[in-house]
Amino acid sequence: MNDITALLFGYSNKKTVQQALCSLEKIHHRIDMVMVLDPSVQIGNETKRHSFDVSFIPEQDPGRALNRILSSIKTSYVLFLHDDDYFSSTLQPSYVNLDPYKSVMTVPQHIGKAVIQQPFLIRTNSGNLNPFPSIGHLPFQEALLPAWLSTLENHQITAIQREGLKKINKNTSKREREKIHFLTKYNTASMESKSPSLSIFIANYNMGSYVETALLSCILQNVQPESVFVIDDGSTDDSRTRLSEWENHPRVTFMVKENGGKARALNEVLPHISTEFVMELDADDWLDPDAVSIVKHYLQDLPEPACVLYGNLRRWKQTADGGVLYKGLSKGRPVRAKNDLVSYRFPLGPRIYRTSALKQIGGFPVVPFEHGRLYEDVSVLMNLFKEAPLFFQNFTVYNVREHKESITKKNHSKWNDFYKSWLDPY
Questions:
Q1: Do 198-423 and 4-171 fall under one CATH topology?
Q2: Structure pTM?
Q3: Is pLDDT at 340 greater than 90 in this prediction?
Q4: Where along the chain do its domains lie?
């Protein structure tokens, strides 16, 4: 019948690819061809022993490759084998049959106590499936399949167990376990947005390599924010071109201005915000998929005088190959006095402002130090703290990316000068 194109990617080495190819012989009568998306594990003439054609796709971005393949193949189905998956010897042919009323079949991936759903079989003539995100729009490559699944409606998906699939056991490091914990959050079912209302604003300057990850993390939420504002502060890289592709998204408002620093940029957005609260997201950071849901949960119990909600920060280090390494959790603590704020070990965050309080103090102060281009977070928190308390809750939904282009890292040495010239008079 030859109605399936099989796609293999995320394999460790040539041996695991060959094992997967051999296991596909169990359904060879269904396989039209096999594509391997890992050019580093080509196995040469060994593919000639199979009863189907095998091709290797030299593509560094699996998301874009999948979109291109799905738009061009002629078979009725695409089968995904991922991360060293292979068929067991007890595979039943009925295992690879998709309900005629469903578009996608998923299987669970068990890693320790975590369970992550992965696409297994896709009907290619399902015209209402969203495209796969580019790897460059995700916090790390392992998020590709769970992130894509989170864009689908429940009625499109049918889930099966792993009886017909096996995987080579791997040891997972603490760093990898933190990624896995993050990925499980994509499994959370979508819910209707609840009160109080919440917007997110992002000020971008020359973060073209990262800003789309920040923006997509706002959109791939199980509870949607009421609106997302992105303002480009006169970037000289390709940020504006990248961001312009998101202009037509119904929840995204894209603005541009001449370069003037983050405080001025956020102040330009502030009059457009009509929600009760607004969360600040740096252009090189990203949110957990359940961030809006968790933040709204804590906002429901926020004491009336409090003007800012904040929690913990999860830290990642950018690597030279484009990935990230988990560094650890920066646990927040209550701020009860001025000295608590200025001696805070790291930027207080995530910062969710009561919009009325932020507008009442005139927004983010543009201080004389460095023409108002640095430490706007501390300045605005000091002004707000004079009017109302800052409220800490023990939650973690915000991911900080540490990299060499970071404005904070570049200007870390200026903190003492800022403290003496601006904060000391407080």
A1: yes
A2: 0.91
A3: no
A4: 4-171, 198-423
CATH of span 4-171 = 3.90.550.10
For residue 82, list its beta bridge partners.
9
Q: Dump pLDDT digits (tens) for 101-156.
A: 999 999 999 888 899 999 999 999 877 789 999 999 999 999 999 999 999 999 99
162: exposed, middle or buried (C-beta count within 10 Å: 0-12, 13-18, 19+)?
A: middle
pLDDT value at residue 343: 79
Q: Which of 276, 266, 188 lies closest to 226, judged by CA?
A: 276
Residue where the block lists tokens 């079989």 = 121
The residues, ordered by sequence, that sit 6+ positions from 202 with a Cβ below 8 Å of its Cβ are: 211, 214, 215, 218, 228, 229, 230, 231, 280, 281, 282, 283
198-423: what CATH class? alpha beta
Which pLDDT score, from 0 to 100, does residue 406 have? Answer: 66
Q: Which residue has the tokens 């023409």?
A: 371
| Dist. CA 2–CA 77, nearest whole Å | 10
Strands (DSSP E) found in 268-344: 277-280, 286-287, 308-318, 324-330
Query: In this predicted structure, which of 15-29, 168-182, 239-253 has the lowest mean pLDDT?
Result: 168-182
